[in-house]
Amino acid sequence: MDNSRSIGIAPAPAFPAAGTLLLAALAALVAWWLWSAPTVPGHLAEWAPALGAGLLANIRISIAAIGLGSVVGLVIGALQLSPLVPLRIVSRCYVVVFRNAPMLVLIYFASYVFPFELKLGGHYVAFPDWIKVTIGLALPASANVAEIFRGAIGSIPAAQWEAATSLAFRRAQIFRWVVLPQCAKRMLPPWMNLYASITMATSLASLVGVHDLLDTAQIASTTVNRVDFTVTIYLTTLALFFIYCYPISRLTQRLERKYAFE
């Protein structure tokens, strides 16, 4: 049984050499550019620590956003299966709204709806912009996780529910011992694909003042003020995102093929 089809996600075609060729092309382009502009490597080495710190900021935001979104999404997904109609309606509205909202709009919304600082016990505590971006990205992530969870639950054949019920399993036991173990495997590939998308969307954080990789590249470009360095720094930014996200994409495709026949 093709599980990826049963939860509504078509398996991605496998191109094992495409990513390697693209990475080699990028490396060759960077090498040629560095050779034609001999002063660029020095500037690039000077800004390398700042670029690394910026990439870590993007990774931190992506992990926090997918973690928060997964927790909230599992709750929303469970509410969509509730026997209570009002809960199903509210959770469904949540999913529809945040799955169809642009991420940039949600980031701006979170940036302006939350205060710049919180008053806790008579002290003011800063509310950093990167946390607001995390919340803004966690909203669509939670809506997508809810759909992934609902789809995985729906992919379990009804015969398994009936067989477990005939063995005197309670509903909670069926969920814990029969349904959830299968759902976890079926949810993993689309969840990882979602994480890669959230990671790439963290580049929007620079628009609200978060000091991330793209913001660092912009500062470096303005500071050095050379066309050849500007091209190199943005090409380096592209390469860093690719190096981080491409292995996730490859692993996702491998998991899709592995679980497609179980």
Structural class by secondary-structure content: mainly alpha
- Please report which band the strand proportion falls in: under 5%, 5-15%, 15-25%, 25-35%, 35-45% or over 45%: under 5%
What gyration radius follows from the Cα positions, in whole Å?
A: 22 Å
Largest sheet: 2 strands, antiparallel
Which H/E pattern describes the elements?
A: HHHHHEEHHHHH
Walk me through the structure.
This protein is mostly helical and 262 residues long. It contains 10 helices and 2 strands; from the N terminus they run αααααββααααα. A two-stranded antiparallel sheet has the order 1-2. A hairpin with a 2-residue loop joins strand 1 (117-120) and strand 2. Helix 9 (213-224) packs antiparallel against helix 10 (227-259). The protein starts with a helix and ends with a helix.
Key terms for this structure?
3% strand, disordered N terminus, mainly alpha, two-stranded antiparallel sheet, 2 strands, 10 helices, single chain, 262 residues, flat
In short:
With 262 residues, the chain is mainly alpha-helical. Helices cover 77% and strands 3% of the residues.
Outline the fold blueprint.
Layout: H1 3-6, H2 18-36, H3 40-80, H4 85-99, H5 103-113, E1 117-120, E2 123-126, H6 129-154, H7 158-166, H8 171-201, H9 213-224, H10 227-259
Antiparallel strand pairs: 1-2
